[in-house]
Amino acid sequence: MQRFVPVRAYFEPASMDYPLGRKLYDSLRSVKVPVQLTGSHNRVTGIPGKTAAEAYREAKRTLVVGVRKSVDFATCKPSAHYQLPLNTSCPGMCEYCYLATTLGRRPYLRVYVNIGEILAKAGEYIGERAPEITVFEGAATSDPIPTEYLTGLLRTTIEHFGREPLGRFRFVTKHDDVGPLLGAEHNGHTRFRFSLNAAAVIRRYEHRTPGLEERVAAAAQVARAGYPLGFIIAPIFHYPAWREDYADLFRSLAAALPESAAQDLTFEFITHRFTKRAKANIAAVFPETGLPMDEEERKYKFGQFGYGKYVYDADTMRAIRDFMHEQAGRFFPAAKVEYFV
Q1: What is the rounded CA–CA span in Å between residue 58 and residue 53?
Q2: How far is CA 228 from CA 193, 248, 324, in A?
């Protein structure tokens, strides 16, 4: 895919007090990206769009450069102890994406330029939990790869944690522009994960993202660079050809990855689910969506955050769980399945 280039950018004035902020301003101006100032990265106005769908598409083409002011990091179960706030959102247009709900009226891409302060705060959390290892997730509300060539935030963070004896970093991406990170001094302290799905699901629902073949090829590059590797298979859909399509996914991985990758490999399995609010948001942004969101065909389940979700029934969940575990064990017997939900 072509690299993400915003059609417009907004800068908080305070971001210009940081070297990265000034660098981004000069870089975007040099390629003729229109730049404006905004009072806050949380309240950006002026992004065009007469309908919800148009506004969403335009937001996904907008970059906002700001300063992360919040002191505390959010927790990040089950994948890590804390979120590490580097950026938010991504240019992808996946129809099912939970960020369409989580980010609400702010689906534009944000990057935070005060990386030194953010990493210093991470060091405080590491100190509080010492001598135990503390794990940070860098993609809880974003895909950080598309803006990496502009910011270098991931490489800075990876090399920082490479020097941290009690800190570990992990992030996930659907994108394949991994070249800038292959030479980073990670020292095995960053788990580089890819979000994958059956090829048919990617083609139908994951717009503006690389295909399965491109992601798998990128994962093989990352493995050869010595990173611990992981895969999130999500969201897993149940449809007539689901077994065949997901089996093809595992076969593709087994054929592409070097043998060394299989010795330290993780899988996370997440089945498709949705809330009433998410369903309404998806319908507004993707009015022609074909996502399977018939509430009568799902089981309603209350979640840990006090609201309910529509999930597959127990028999379907069991079938998907057993199949995914069987495939992982067949092709990657040394891999760890971190969770299935």
Answers
A1: 9
A2: 8, 23, 21
Residue 265 domain flag: yes
pLDDT at 217 over 70: yes
What count of Cα atoms within 13 Å lies in the side-chain half-sphere of residue 71?
1
- Name the packing angle between helices 212-224 and 242-256 (round to 10°): 30
What pLDDT score was predicted for residue 213?
98
Examine residue 3 and state whether it is found in any structural domain, yes or no.
Answer: no
**Is residue 274 within 8 Å of 286, Cβ to Cβ?**
no
Residue 304 has pLDDT above 80, yes or no: no
In this structure, is residue 1 part of a structural domain?
Answer: no
Structural domain including 327 reads 8-340
* CATH code, 300: 3.80.30.30
Q: Where are the alpha helices (DSSP H) in 77-228?
A: 99-102, 115-129, 148-151, 153-162, 199-205, 212-224
Q: 275: helix, coil or strand?
A: coil
At 61, list the tokens.
Answer: 């083409």
Would you say 47 and 108 are in contact if contact means Cβ atoms under 8 Å apart? yes
Tell me how many domains the chain contains: 1
Kindly report the pTM of this predicted structure.
Answer: 0.95
| Banded pLDDT at 99 (limits 50, 70, 90) | confident
In a domain, 303, yes or no: yes
